[in-house]
Specification:
There is one protein chain. This protein is of the alpha/beta class and 276 residues long. The chain folds into two domains: 127 residues, Leucine Dehydrogenase, chain A, domain 1 (Rossmann fold, 3-Layer(aba) Sandwich); 142 residues, 3-Layer(aba) Sandwich (Rossmann fold), CATH 3.40.50. It is 34% helix and 22% strand. Strands 2-1-3-5-6-4 form a six-stranded mixed beta sheet, with helices on both faces. The chain has a six-stranded parallel beta sheet with strand order 9-8-7-10-11-12, with helices on both faces. Helix 4 crosses helix 5 and helix 8 packs across helix 9. The longest helix is centred in the last third of the chain and has 16 residues. It is globular, with a radius of gyration of 18 Å.
Length: 276
């Protein structure tokens, strides 16, 4: 019997997860179909019930539902519980289990593709939503020296700062539209600003003149492959890293959770790049 995995989000037109995961399923000869399930906030409850069908293995969760699905699953792994956001759901015999694979995917991409070791470094997070929480906890667990967090919703940034301070990290909150960046080694955009097929396509979370040339600029947005932020960073002479590797690495972990098998990582990278 054909099994199904879905992508839950709104919108989902920017995502290359369907092409990437399907290529991996096909390469291993698995009878699994990966589908995009565009889900408005008021449809979230219904789609969660769909996940309980015997033919459904689970789902990925993307913007804006990563935090909203937290109370809708039956169980959460320790990391997802700590972060407060879920990006992968596994269906096991009627039970929905939530995981966060974003944190490890973020860190793996930062180290392997960005050549950046966070220990002892100063970082700035643009945004404080689900992805930012995963990135923040990943950096804190990796020994980052300090973090500055910004968000349009100041209370959200303050909540993340408080949670990270509990891990012994020096954290401060800044206004979302920063007029001057403090000295830093890493800038991470965790907002959807600049994402293709979104209302903010073509926009950047930073004014061009604010991009620090001495820092690595990491944009978790991967479609387009070069966001306005990364283009500005390159013009400033900064090193850059797009979100494609993070997307692939978090997808590798999700694949293993759904199937119990090791996926063909090279095939996943190839399919993701081709889809872009």
């Amino acid at each position: 019997m054909t099994k199904y995995v879905g992508l839950i989000g709104y919108p989902v037109g920017h995502s290359v997860s369907p092409q990437m995961q399907q290529a991996a399923f096909d390469q291993l000869g698995l009878d699994i179909r990966y589908e995009a399930w565009e889900t408005k906030p008021d449809e979230l409850g219904a789609i969660m019930e769909r996940l309980r069908q015997p033919s459904t293995l689970g789902a990925n969760v993307t913007i804006p539902h990563k935090e909203a699905v937290m109370p809708l699953v039956d169980e959460r792994d320790d990391l997802a519980h700590q972060i407060g956001a879920i990006n992968t759901i596994v269906h096991r015999e009627g039970t929905l289990i939530g995981y966060n694979t974003d944190a490890e995917g973020f860190l793996q991409a930062l180290r392997q593709e960005g050549g950046f070791e966070p220990a002892g470094k100063r970082a700035i997070l643009l945004g404080a939503g689900g992805v930012a929480r995963a990135a923040g906890f990943a950096l804190a667990r990796a020994g980052v020296r300090s973090l500055v967090i910004t968000d349009v919703i100041v209370e959200r940034a303050e909540k993340l700062a408080k949670d990270l301070e509990a891990l012994g990290v020096s954290v401060s909150v800044a206004e979302h539209f920063i007029d001057a960046l403090p000295p830093c080694d890493l800038v991470v955009n965790c907002t959807p600003l600049g994402m293709k097929h979104s209302a903010t396509e073509g926009q950047s979370p930073l004014k061009p003149g604010l991009v620090p040339k001495e820092a690595l600029v990491y944009d978790v947005v991967y479609n387009p492959i070069e966001t306005p932020l990364l283009l500005d960073a390159k013009r400033a002479g900064a090193r850059t890293l797009n979100g494609l590797a993070m997307m692939v690495y978090q997808g590798v972990i999700a694949f293993e959770l759904w199937t119990g098998k090791k996926p063909p990582v090279d095939i996943m990278f190839e399919a993701a790049r081709k889809a872009l």
